[in-house]
Design a protein that fits this description.
Radius of gyration: 23 Å
Number of helices: 13
Distance between the termini: 22 Å
Number of strands: 21
CATH topology of the largest domain: Aminopeptidase
CATH superfamily of the largest domain: Zn peptidases
Largest sheet: 6 strands, mixed
Strand order of the largest sheet: 1-2-6-3-7-19
Number of domains: 2
CATH architecture of the largest domain: 3-Layer(aba) Sandwich
Strand content: 15-25%
CATH class of the largest domain: Alpha Beta
Shape: globular
């Protein structure tokens, strides 16, 4: 390890220990950048204009802010630091938007918008997803620049303000400006590590599609004593329809919804991988989901079906009446389905075949309707090997390599649209309460992440060992 590399990493650890990391993160958390709220474009734009643009300009980046092509959505920032056209170009990414704050439900810290440290935990909305993650990567670049005098590579950094709403407008913006977003490799950070103390490298993301299932039988409810046993109950019909989609163990029953195959490299990468969400994570139900697979295979290389919400009647004030309707908001997370355009048609055919033609499907629900495609880079790609080696040198142990994160993100824009190998290095953990009250990051994990990213950027800047 070179002296310069060591010194750059030491700068990164001082940035954390001196409190500068928490100071920067506190400012970023204070922006109420909730992209799932209507009419919140002003708050989304403020994060870009008042924080991101000045921060990147201080790092020597030239900033271009794209208005979102979808009305009412947040802007998209592309920050460029082009040192020499002969050097490798690294494209990276972060999102400054967050899910709804859920202000009244926080039990830790001082609510979602005031950063609070309690021991090794730092609380605030967006800490884990994704403000701390891109703050760490920006700081790591700064440490390399301060130590070396330059990065040694070209850097392009995207900050979008709509990931939690399905990244509206991002595909169109990149498509219209392919040259501006071009690069040799995509390296970014989002999602959790496989366990808090295990440096992790993720090569893709599962796709996700949300849809509503509805049973509407009549107008108005009817007395359950006078009409029970005489008129069909939509909640019972819907429950049975859901049971034909996934059985009592959560195993998907629609053949076209299952991965057609998994490469040997994917299977090998998950050998011995243990899923560990940390101290406050739920217990894994070993008998739930696909039979014959390990927990890591189920979440990182298989598909899962979930019912996210379900209603019939008035659950908060039930009455003795048979409801006229029932609704379920459902989701398929998929590692691979062969042809994603067949997801909804295959569902329709399956329901009809099993006698549930009365169940309607809405594949563009008004609420929580974001969809992402599955996309990934193979584990044996040369850039994967390079990043693995760099992380190993810094952390003194080989990183865990996951073929896909369990969640979903706009990864296909980088692999498919831009044609890049895409590598994600997550700086959070599964028990971080992401998307829930009491969201937080772990200080020791942030320290490890700062060291890993600083070492990686230093190694890319060395140039000689990077893939051709």
């Amino acid at each position: 390890m070179s002296t310069g590399r060591d010194s750059a990493i030491n700068r990164a650890t001082r940035y954390l220990s001196d409190g500068e990391f928490e100071s920067e993160l506190a400012k970023r958390v204070s922006f109420k950048s909730e992209s799932q709220l209507p009419d919140n474009e002003h708050a989304l734009r403020e994060y870009i204009d008042k924080d991101m643009v000045p921060a990147f300009e201080q790092l020597g980046f030239h900033c271009k802010v794209f208005d979102n092509p979808e009305p009412g959505r947040g802007p998209i920032l592309l920050a460029n630091r082009m040192e020499d056209t002969s050097l490798k170009t690294v494209l990276t990414y972060g999102h400054g938007d967050v899910v709804i704050g859920q202000d009244q439900q926080w039990k830790k810290g001082r609510g979602p918008w005031l950063l609070t440290r309690d021991g090794h935990r730092i609380y605030g909305r967006g800490t884990a997803d994704n403000k701390a993650q891109h703050t760490i990567n920006m700081a790591a670049m700064r440490c390399v620049i301060e130590e070396r005098g330059h990065l040694g590579f070209n850097a392009r950094f995207i900050i979008e303000m709509g990931e939690e709403a399905g990244s509206p407008g991002l595909r169109e913006t990149i498509s219209r400006n392919l040259e501006a977003f071009s690069a040799d490799v995509f390296i970014a950070s989002d999602g959790p590590r496989v366990s808090p103390d295990k440096p992790t490298l993720t090569l893709g993301s599962r796709g996700a599609i949300n849809f509503n299932l509805d049973v509407v039988l009549r107008e108005g409810a009817h007395h359950s004593g006078n009409w029970g046993g005489l008129i069909a109950d939509p909640a019972i019909i819907l429950s049975n329809a859901l049971a034909c989609i996934a059985n009592a163990s959560g195993q998907i029953q629609i053949q076209e919804w299952l991965p057609p195959s998994r490469s040997d490299a994917v299977k090998k990468s998950l050998e011995g991988v243990v899923v560990d969400g940390g101290n406050n994570a739920p217990l894994i139900d070993l008998k739930w989901g696909a039979a014959g697979l390990t927990p890591s295979e189920k979440v990182y290389s298989w598909n899962s079906f979930a019912v996210l919400a379900m209603t019939s009647g008035s659950p908060e004030k039930p009455v003795n009446a048979i409801s006229p309707t029932a609704n379920a908001h459902c989701q398929l997370r998929y590692f691979d389905v062969g042809d994603s355009k067949r997801i909804i048609p295959a569902l329709r055919e399956h329901l009809d075949k099993n006698g549930f033609s009365m169940v309607t499907i809405d594949d563009k629900p008004k609420h929580n309707g974001a969809a992402f495609a599955a996309a990934r880079t193979e584990p044996d790609h040369p850039w994967v090997e390079f990043v693995k080696q760099s992380m190993h040198v810094t952390s003194k142990e080989p990183p865990v390599v996951l073929p896909s994160m369990g969640g979903s993100i706009c990864n296909d824009l980088f692999t498919d649209l831009l044609g890049l190998p895409a590598i994600w290095i997550p700086h959070s953990y599964a028990g971080c309460s992401q998307h829930a009250p009491d969201e937080h990051v772990l200080v020791p994990l942030c320290k490890s992440a700062l060291e890993i990213m600083t070492g990686l950027y230093w190694d890319i800047g060395e140039g000689s060992a990077t893939p051709k």
